[in-house]
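U., I forgot to send this yesterday:
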Amino acid sequence: MNFLRRLLGRDEWAITLPVLDGPLLPNQALEEAETFADLAGADNLVATEKGLVASSGNRLLRYDASGQSETLAEFDSPVSAVTAAKGMLAIGLDGDGVVIQGGQHGGRKFTEANGRKFGCVTALTFLDANTLLMANGSDAVPAEQWRRDLMQKGATGSLWKLDLKTGTVTCIADGLAWPAGIATTGSNRIYVSESWRHRVLAIDLASGQREPVLEHLPAYPARISPAYDAGYWLSFYSVRNQLVEFILREDGYRTRMLAEVPEAHWMAPALASGLSFREPMQGSQLKQMGVLKPYAVTRSYGLIASCDARMRPLASFHSRADGSAHGTVAACEVGDDLLVASRGGGRILRLPGVANGHREFQR
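Result:
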């Protein structure tokens, strides 16, 4: 039966993708957004009482309202996740666990538990002043190698609860396909984005029970940040691609590609594209009369979705195939503005008047 399903392209062998429609209908809002600050490798945005905190490589920076920055810290490893609460910063270091800076738990560090190393911290959020939730994206690769984990069909991610007082570490969920974002709900449930399965899960902290609340997404979900009106901002690495979905089903070709082709030139999702003539290209990506069509099939894309308290999408902001504000891996509210980290575009974007409960942006 599996042979017949593969031969006829049915069930798990059907290479069909959800379309960007309804609340996810494409627009150019991200491409037309203001530039708050230029920052190569812009990543991890967190609003604090002392200003906006962002990361770039192994640096942690703080911005004032005018976009002027100062360096808060530099580390030996890239910063892979950041969250804040009550004068504390929890910082995920790629390959080197989590460290707490400031506050009553400053200096505490978590690098492993139960014989498992926290070498791929992808998301952090405080449950309360003494409890931190952490997503470890994979047991096999560091966070910088997210594309390799996807193309290897990784599912070794996990979710952990860290007690900052006692140092106790508890595994809440295991076997996740790259958990990339965590958000609290005000109850015993949390939301976790599971990127490689294109969905958002609700996970019970007491029992570990999982329930999909947003499925069949047309893109790979990344971080989740809170919105003023009890909703959420959901960011994405990139959109899904039929050719990538096909390659994920062709194990022989995929194995050789990973072994023989430089990673920058894999046929895989990317945070930016069009940087080299050696990149793989599909027919619609060819320029016609010097113009790339915005609806062309693309490896990189910019997408942020506004979701309600039940994680139902309400509206979205895009940078399409012909844009450059791609790899939008983080977002946060600052007053009435939404700030977005475009890692592929190397800048922090500002969308004025769409946050703090405003809904005029709905389409």
